[in-house]
Amino acid sequence: MNDAGDQSGRDAEDHPASNPEDRPASRAGGRPGSRASLGVRGGLPVAGPAQTRKAAVRLVRLDGRAFGAMLVLNGLAAVAGLGAPWLLGRIVDEVKAGASAGTVDRLALAILGCAVVQLLLARYASYVGHRFGERTLARIREQFTERALAMPASVVERAGTGDLTTRGTTDVAAVGTTLRDAGPDVAIASVQALFILAAVFVLDPLLGACGVIGLSGIWFASRWYLRRALGAYLEEGAASSALAEELAATTTGARTVQALRLEHRRLMACRRTVEESRRARTRTLFLRSVLFPVVDVSYAIPVAAVLLVGGALTMRDPSAMTLGTVVASALYLRQLSEPLNIVLQRLEELQSSGAAFARVEGLGAAPGTTPAGPASKGPTSEDPVSKDPASEGQGRISGGAAAGGSSVPVDDRLEVSRASYAYDGGPDVLHEVELSVRPGERLAIVGPSGAGKTTLGRLLAGMDAPRTGSVAVGGVPVADLAPGLLRERVVLVTQEHHVFLGTVRDNLQIAAPEATDADLRAALAAVGADWFDELPDGLDTDLRHGPHHPDGARAQQLALARVVLADPHTLILDEATALLDPRTARHTERALAAVLEGRTVIAIAHRLQTAHDADRVAVMRDGRLTELGTHEELVAAGGAYASLWRSWHGDHAN
Ligand SMILES: Nc1ncnc2c1ncn2[C@@H]1O[C@H](COP(=O)(O)OP(=O)(O)OP(=O)(O)O)[C@@H](O)[C@H]1O
């Protein structure tokens, strides 16, 4: 199992790129509305308009019956709503013709009936609409989670967790509100508006034309608004992400900030992103402040036009148009303001949630994830990548990634060939590393701090691809393997280990859902987790909080037990036993080695005892592999390793 929690923690602490001072003030990039800005923002991609529309249509299709039912019910409610103005027009004409009070009462009763039917239908339609919204939101959430989990850790690291968090919280919530409220409201209101306009045309085409011309101001204002809104709202979303990123970086790196006296610079950087966010929000506010006043004025124009034109025609020739028709038309157009208001007010929400949806959908285009996860077919927790071998490895950012997308390694041999690597366009930190690790070998990598051991470990684990050269398993570049395939082959274990909410069993079965209690106990025993026997409820002991919450060493043993259960053929231990006391560490390493008999173990070691116990030792210095051989060979060679060994082992060196 490639435990992302395990992998990322150390990097966040140690690597300069994770240092708040080294982060760019804003990863947002792009200017509002520009083409480029629709492509990649905040480090992660943003779906383009066509892609977003396609995704929306796909979601609607998945619950097509509910969506269709909502539209039909709304249509019926709108028809019932048309009754009242027409009946009122009839009352005017009947009164003018000297009808009895009984006729007027019957017509008034019919108006009441129409209102009740409309109310009931609209209620039911919104119930169906809300259910549709909730189900669709659940699908979006599941798809988001699956895509986020399928993303290679290196992509998340580069994009920054702030962006991912904002998309998973603020953006998904915005889409949810739209699906629950704005979406159904706009659907209802649009159907009503269409029916009302049609009714005016049926009553009198000329008055209908007056209404449409009178409404044209709204059309122009809306077009003006819509052209600018998407870019402006995308900009606003990106600014929010950058702000979240900046604040998160500052707070998580607070100690570093204080230690290096960077408070002032951090404050300045935060002020810049706050200012960018304010500017983005002011722009969307400006767009709204133009749209709404224009719309308010525009509502009165069609009503006035119908009354003026209709009144003049009735006075000139009462047989051409009755007063009832004019009254009914004016009432219809007056009634039109209500659904149009809803559409226009919600338009803003639709725009901002459209931008939010584009950002949520953009995750599907992130390197290393599949374009459409299985969640789109309904709630499921399957791994989208492993379900779709044809798209394995698609779109990785790493160099030369496209090639072996669906290739399966022919064997378990790891080959590093003239691999050089640089972080984000910086200088090379690995130089033409050449290394071949045979299956079952135990290799220790040693060297001073900053020599490139961790970086080499990341390349071997497929978290990144080399800038030049190759790192391959069984002939396939490791970074090209789909996450599912990669997990079965190489697992990287670092110092940081995450304890998931739940019991011991929950924490272990993540790696092997089918494992029996006996398997779980055996895995714990294999990593020397003796403390497990003292837990009151055994595998069911709740680890969340309280006395049984595991400390660092126990959390590490749990993570190692997960690895035992995941059973990969190659294990890369990056100081994986560093938190254990030396006796427990040795015990764990031995136990682990016994369990992983016949598997490859690459240990990035600070303790030279680990190197002594390994089959071969690789010594690194300044990004180069300087010595490679068995412990005895290297000691005999009298190079850097020999002097390291002598100084570590003192007079007892051999
Ligand atoms: N995320 C990063 N961005 C930029 N440079 C990095 C990053 N991580 C490491 N480096 C640089 O790459 C070089 C190799 O670092 P690496 O962590 O691989 O060395 P190491 O031998 O594992 O060191 P240590 O034993 O201290 O962990 C160092 O110069 C380091 O500053």
TrEMBL record:
Annotated segments matching region Disordered: 1-46, 364-409
Its membrane topology: Multi-pass membrane protein
Cell inner membrane as UniProt keyword: no
UniProt entry keywords in alphabetical sequence: ATP-binding, Membrane, Nucleotide-binding, Transmembrane, Transmembrane helix
Residues of the ABC transmembrane type-1 domain: 69-352
Transmembrane parts of this sequence: 66-87, 107-125, 193-220, 285-313
Main subcellular location of this protein, as a coarse class: membrane
Localization, UniProt: Cell membrane
Basic and acidic residues bias: start-end ranges: 8-25
All copies of domain ABC transporter, residue ranges: 414-647
Pfam families the record matches: ABC_membrane, ABC_tran
Taxonomic superkingdom: Bacteria
GO molecular function: ATP binding
Compositional bias annotation for Low complexity: 364-379
Protein name: ABC transporter ATP-binding protein
